[in-house]
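Q: What residues go here?
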């Protein structure tokens, strides 16, 4: 009996592989390395302390997936494989719909064919849009989603809910992540963005290591305590453990559940800069520039449902997230380098 992890060589997937093995699961990984380097494999195995089968597999291709299901008794799938760059999705909408939606549909078809009906899916807080007030709760209506990436998450959520209605054996745990940051405490796996990072924490850590001259703070005129945007940052290892809990839940229940994975604590951009400086003793120069299009004032989770249903809650604080990010960045200034 094994759990298939699609996109298991990526940022969140690599950490989840390690935590799943530590929790006693056998893990099989499928990744097409579109946004991952094969060098991550040996680091995952070293941390997990156990061999893991890795398949080069594009989840859009049944012919790539079927041999995995033939080879292994896959009881559940944790589905990370997808593209996630908001800006790119506005330029390449069809490619995003193809990869993120066709990929999920093909995966589910193959799962059904092999009688596997437990899925944990990576959704995003972005589906709440900007209309809902903080803290965000799962029963709130989804908001106006602003870009094709966000729409792929929304459509996938609906596809999985439809599947659960049509097939009463199917179990889909749809996890809405808030802002994952940090890295494994070993400093051997972490986030390895291509080119100039879009997201706050990798940008700050590249400023700290001297690759980028200063941080641009996108707007200081939001209605928050210091004028900068507030987010619910969550340690990637906490997030990974949320998946372990979600797989256990999916094993025991049928139907679709949407669950936030966040801490319930919000920090502004300048709070994060200050916490990073404190954790690392490195000054982060910054300049305030105009707001980034599409950004909202605050994204903050109500994490109650995750605690009630999954028995899971985040453990790590912002300082630990900063320290672990910095250890990864220092040890791997050029990421996984290949
Ligand atoms: P990532 O890019 O690091 O990992 C995704 C992995 O999927 C990569 O290893 C990539 O090579 C692989 N992949 C992509 N398309 C594939 C395909 N067709 N077949 C096989 N493998 C494929 O991203 P991540 O940050 O680890 O995110 C994982 C998931 O979580 C994504 O679906 C993302 O949209 C979602 N998510 C991420 C965040 C975040 O802030 N990182 C927030 C919300 C949701
Ligand atoms: C972004 C995406 C979101 C996606 C998430 C995870 C956008 C608009 N949103 O969320 O869809 O699910 O990443 O991949 O891209 N900031 C700066 N300077 C920077 C970078 C960010 O000030 O160089 C600020 C932002 O304005 C925001 C906060 O930092 O207030 C966090 O930004 P980021 O890390 O990009 O995450 P989100 O925008 O929340």
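A:
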């Amino acid at each position: 009996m094994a759990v298939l992890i699609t996109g298991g060589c990526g940022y969140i997937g690599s950490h989840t592989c390690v935590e799943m093995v530590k929790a006693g699961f056998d893990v099989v990984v499928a990744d097409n390395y579109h946004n991952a380097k094969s060098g991550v494999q040996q680091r995952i195995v070293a941390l997990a302390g156990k061999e893991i089968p890795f398949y080069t597999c594009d989840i859009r291709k049944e012919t790539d997936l079927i041999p995995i299901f033939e080879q292994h008794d896959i009881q559940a799938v944790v589905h990370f494989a997808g593209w996630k760059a908001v800006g790119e999705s506005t330029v390449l909408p069809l490619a995003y719909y193809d990869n993120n939606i066709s990929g999920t549909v093909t995966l589910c078809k193959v799962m059904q064919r092999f009688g596997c009906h437990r899925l944990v899916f990576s959704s995003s807080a972005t589906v709440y849009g900007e209309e809902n007030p903080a803290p965000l709760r799962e029963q709130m209506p989804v908001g106006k989603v602003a870009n094709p990436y966000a729409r792929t998450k929304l459509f996938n959520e609906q596809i999985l809910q439809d599947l659960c209605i049509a097939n009463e054996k199917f179990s889909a745990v749809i996890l809405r992540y808030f802002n994952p940051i940090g890295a494994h405490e070993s400093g051997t796996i972490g986030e390895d963005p291509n080119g100039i990072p879009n997201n706050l924490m990798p940008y700050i850590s590249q400023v700290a290591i001297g690759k980028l001259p200063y941080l641009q703070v996108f707007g200081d005129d939001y209605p928050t305590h210091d004028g900068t945007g507030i987010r619910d940052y969550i340690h990637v290892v906490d997030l990974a453990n949320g998946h372990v809990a979600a797989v256990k839940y999916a094993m025991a229940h049928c139907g679709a559940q949407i669950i936030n994975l966040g801490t319930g604590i919000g920090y502004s951009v300048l709070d994060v800069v200050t916490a990073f400086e404190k954790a690392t003793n490195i000054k982060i120069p910054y300049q305030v520039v105009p707001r980034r299009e599409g950004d909202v004032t605050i994204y903050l989770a109500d994490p109650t449902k995750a605690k009630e249903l999954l028995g899971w809650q985040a453990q790590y604080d912002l300082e630990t997230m900063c320290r672990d990010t910095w250890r990864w960045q220092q040890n791997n200034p050029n990421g996984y380098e290949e």
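A: Context that may help when evaluating the design: Residues 84, 86, 124, 126, 150, 179, 198-200, 203, 215-218, 229, 231, 269, 292, 294-295, 299 surround uridine-diphosphate-N-acetylglucosamine (ligand 2) (CB under 6 Å). The mean pLDDT is 97.
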